[in-house]
Amino acid sequence: MGLYNDQILPRIMHRVLGSAEFAEIRSRVAAGLDGEVLEVGFGSGLNVPYYPPGVTRVLAIEPAGVSRKLAAATVTGSPVPVSYCGLDGQHLPAESGSVDHVLSTWTLCTIPDAAQALREIVRVLRPGGVFHFAEHGRSPEPGVARWQDRLTPLQRRLAGGCHLNRPIADLIDASGLRVTTLRNYYVRGPRPNGYMYEGTARRG
To answer: Between 20 and 30 A from 157 (CA), which of 96, 97, 98, 186?
Structure first.
Protein backbone atom coordinates (compact mmCIF):
# COMPACT_ATOMS: atom_id res chain seq x y z
CA MET A 1 0.00 0.00 0.00
CA GLY A 2 3.08 2.26 0.12
CA LEU A 3 2.82 3.51 -3.45
CA TYR A 4 -0.95 3.94 -3.16
CA ASN A 5 -0.83 5.87 0.14
CA ASP A 6 2.21 7.94 -0.78
CA GLN A 7 1.52 8.79 -4.43
CA ILE A 8 -2.06 8.03 -5.47
CA LEU A 9 -4.24 8.74 -2.42
CA PRO A 10 -3.10 12.38 -1.97
CA ARG A 11 -4.08 13.12 -5.57
CA ILE A 12 -7.47 11.47 -5.09
CA MET A 13 -8.11 13.48 -1.94
CA HIS A 14 -7.06 16.70 -3.68
CA ARG A 15 -9.77 16.15 -6.29
CA VAL A 16 -12.49 14.87 -3.95
CA LEU A 17 -12.00 17.59 -1.32
CA GLY A 18 -11.61 20.33 -3.94
CA SER A 19 -15.30 20.37 -4.88
CA ALA A 20 -17.53 23.44 -4.65
CA GLU A 21 -19.46 21.90 -1.75
CA PHE A 22 -16.31 21.49 0.30
CA ALA A 23 -15.13 24.97 -0.71
CA GLU A 24 -18.23 26.47 0.93
CA ILE A 25 -17.47 24.57 4.11
CA ARG A 26 -13.83 25.69 4.08
CA SER A 27 -14.92 29.32 3.71
CA ARG A 28 -17.18 29.09 6.76
CA VAL A 29 -14.65 27.25 8.92
CA ALA A 30 -11.82 29.67 8.12
CA ALA A 31 -13.94 32.71 9.01
CA GLY A 32 -12.66 34.36 12.17
CA LEU A 33 -9.07 33.17 11.85
CA ASP A 34 -6.49 35.81 12.64
CA GLY A 35 -2.97 36.16 13.98
CA GLU A 36 -0.85 33.00 14.02
CA VAL A 37 -2.64 29.87 12.83
CA LEU A 38 -1.50 26.26 13.00
CA GLU A 39 -3.18 24.04 10.40
CA VAL A 40 -3.21 20.32 11.16
CA GLY A 41 -3.48 18.34 7.93
CA PHE A 42 -2.58 21.13 5.53
CA GLY A 43 -2.94 18.71 2.61
CA SER A 44 -2.73 20.28 -0.84
CA GLY A 45 -3.40 23.80 0.44
CA LEU A 46 -7.10 23.91 -0.34
CA ASN A 47 -7.82 26.14 2.68
CA VAL A 48 -5.33 28.83 1.67
CA PRO A 49 -7.75 30.89 -0.49
CA TYR A 50 -10.08 31.21 2.50
CA TYR A 51 -7.61 32.58 5.06
CA PRO A 52 -8.97 35.99 6.20
CA PRO A 53 -6.77 39.10 5.85
CA GLY A 54 -6.12 39.11 9.59
CA VAL A 55 -4.04 35.92 9.44
CA THR A 56 -0.37 36.84 9.80
CA ARG A 57 1.28 33.40 9.54
CA VAL A 58 0.32 29.77 9.06
CA LEU A 59 2.28 26.84 10.48
CA ALA A 60 1.46 23.78 8.37
CA ILE A 61 1.48 20.16 9.55
CA GLU A 62 1.46 17.76 6.60
CA PRO A 63 3.11 14.32 6.30
CA ALA A 64 2.47 13.64 2.59
CA GLY A 65 5.19 14.80 0.23
CA VAL A 66 2.87 14.63 -2.79
CA SER A 67 0.36 16.89 -1.02
CA ARG A 68 3.13 19.41 -0.41
CA LYS A 69 4.00 19.33 -4.12
CA LEU A 70 0.36 19.83 -5.08
CA ALA A 71 0.21 22.80 -2.70
CA ALA A 72 3.45 24.42 -3.93
CA ALA A 73 1.95 26.95 -6.35
CA THR A 74 -0.80 27.89 -3.89
CA VAL A 75 1.69 28.37 -1.08
CA THR A 76 4.00 30.45 -3.28
CA GLY A 77 1.13 32.72 -4.33
CA SER A 78 -0.39 33.04 -0.87
CA PRO A 79 -0.45 36.54 0.65
CA VAL A 80 -0.13 34.80 4.03
CA PRO A 81 3.28 33.26 4.83
CA VAL A 82 2.99 29.47 5.14
CA SER A 83 5.75 27.51 6.87
CA TYR A 84 5.85 23.73 6.99
CA CYS A 85 6.80 22.81 10.52
CA GLY A 86 5.95 19.17 11.12
CA LEU A 87 4.62 15.84 9.94
CA ASP A 88 2.60 14.47 12.85
CA GLY A 89 -0.62 15.89 14.29
CA GLN A 90 -0.02 13.91 17.48
CA HIS A 91 3.19 15.85 18.23
CA LEU A 92 2.92 19.50 17.22
CA PRO A 93 6.28 21.33 17.02
CA ALA A 94 5.02 24.56 18.58
CA GLU A 95 5.49 26.05 22.01
CA SER A 96 2.70 25.78 24.54
CA GLY A 97 0.23 28.66 24.34
CA SER A 98 1.87 30.05 21.22
CA VAL A 99 -0.85 30.13 18.50
CA ASP A 100 -4.09 32.07 18.21
CA HIS A 101 -6.06 29.48 16.24
CA VAL A 102 -5.78 25.87 15.10
CA LEU A 103 -7.51 24.77 11.89
CA SER A 104 -8.36 21.17 10.95
CA THR A 105 -10.43 20.05 7.96
CA TRP A 106 -11.07 16.36 7.36
CA THR A 107 -8.00 15.36 9.35
CA LEU A 108 -9.01 13.97 12.76
CA CYS A 109 -10.49 10.94 11.02
CA THR A 110 -7.04 9.76 9.87
CA ILE A 111 -4.76 10.60 12.82
CA PRO A 112 -4.13 7.30 14.65
CA ASP A 113 -4.69 8.79 18.12
CA ALA A 114 -7.19 11.62 17.68
CA ALA A 115 -7.42 12.20 21.44
CA GLN A 116 -3.65 12.80 21.61
CA ALA A 117 -3.87 15.19 18.66
CA LEU A 118 -6.57 17.17 20.45
CA ARG A 119 -4.46 17.31 23.62
CA GLU A 120 -1.68 18.80 21.52
CA ILE A 121 -4.10 21.31 20.00
CA VAL A 122 -5.14 22.39 23.50
CA ARG A 123 -1.49 22.70 24.50
CA VAL A 124 -0.41 24.95 21.62
CA LEU A 125 -3.44 27.26 21.74
CA ARG A 126 -3.07 30.39 23.82
CA PRO A 127 -5.68 30.85 26.58
CA GLY A 128 -8.85 31.91 24.79
CA GLY A 129 -7.55 30.56 21.47
CA VAL A 130 -9.96 28.82 19.13
CA PHE A 131 -9.96 25.49 17.32
CA HIS A 132 -11.79 25.64 13.95
CA PHE A 133 -12.85 22.27 12.56
CA ALA A 134 -14.74 20.55 9.77
CA GLU A 135 -14.65 16.78 10.20
CA HIS A 136 -16.77 13.81 9.25
CA GLY A 137 -17.66 11.26 11.85
CA ARG A 138 -20.22 9.15 13.66
CA SER A 139 -23.84 9.69 12.72
CA PRO A 140 -26.54 9.86 15.43
CA GLU A 141 -28.76 7.65 13.24
CA PRO A 142 -28.33 4.05 14.50
CA GLY A 143 -28.68 2.51 11.05
CA VAL A 144 -26.04 4.79 9.53
CA ALA A 145 -23.75 4.32 12.54
CA ARG A 146 -23.94 0.54 12.16
CA TRP A 147 -22.83 0.85 8.55
CA GLN A 148 -20.02 3.18 9.63
CA ASP A 149 -18.79 0.53 12.07
CA ARG A 150 -18.96 -2.15 9.38
CA LEU A 151 -17.21 -0.08 6.73
CA THR A 152 -14.49 1.55 8.82
CA PRO A 153 -11.97 -1.37 8.55
CA LEU A 154 -12.20 -1.18 4.73
CA GLN A 155 -12.19 2.64 4.78
CA ARG A 156 -9.01 2.65 6.86
CA ARG A 157 -7.27 0.54 4.20
CA LEU A 158 -8.51 2.54 1.23
CA ALA A 159 -8.30 6.06 2.67
CA GLY A 160 -5.07 6.30 4.61
CA GLY A 161 -6.37 5.26 8.01
CA CYS A 162 -9.65 7.21 7.81
CA HIS A 163 -12.28 6.28 10.42
CA LEU A 164 -15.94 6.84 9.51
CA ASN A 165 -17.21 6.33 13.05
CA ARG A 166 -15.32 8.70 15.34
CA PRO A 167 -17.60 10.78 17.63
CA ILE A 168 -15.88 14.06 16.86
CA ALA A 169 -17.84 16.33 19.23
CA ASP A 170 -17.32 13.91 22.13
CA LEU A 171 -13.59 13.77 21.44
CA ILE A 172 -13.36 17.56 21.38
CA ASP A 173 -15.34 17.85 24.61
CA ALA A 174 -13.10 15.28 26.30
CA SER A 175 -9.98 17.25 25.37
CA GLY A 176 -11.01 20.16 27.59
CA LEU A 177 -11.94 22.49 24.76
CA ARG A 178 -15.35 24.16 25.05
CA VAL A 179 -17.42 23.78 21.90
CA THR A 180 -18.81 27.22 21.05
CA THR A 181 -20.47 26.56 17.68
CA LEU A 182 -21.46 23.27 16.07
CA ARG A 183 -23.31 22.38 12.88
CA ASN A 184 -24.17 18.79 11.98
CA TYR A 185 -25.39 17.70 8.56
CA TYR A 186 -24.79 15.28 5.72
CA VAL A 187 -22.83 16.25 2.62
CA ARG A 188 -23.85 14.77 -0.71
CA GLY A 189 -22.97 11.13 -1.23
CA PRO A 190 -23.24 7.94 0.84
CA ARG A 191 -24.46 8.76 4.35
CA PRO A 192 -21.87 6.63 6.19
CA ASN A 193 -19.14 8.79 4.64
CA GLY A 194 -20.81 12.16 4.94
CA TYR A 195 -21.98 13.08 8.45
CA MET A 196 -20.30 16.40 9.23
CA TYR A 197 -19.18 18.15 12.39
CA GLU A 198 -18.42 21.80 11.63
CA GLY A 199 -17.67 24.40 14.26
CA THR A 200 -15.36 26.04 16.75
CA ALA A 201 -14.12 25.22 20.24
CA ARG A 202 -12.33 27.52 22.65
CA ARG A 203 -9.51 26.88 25.07
CA GLY A 204 -10.32 28.17 28.57
So the answer is: 186
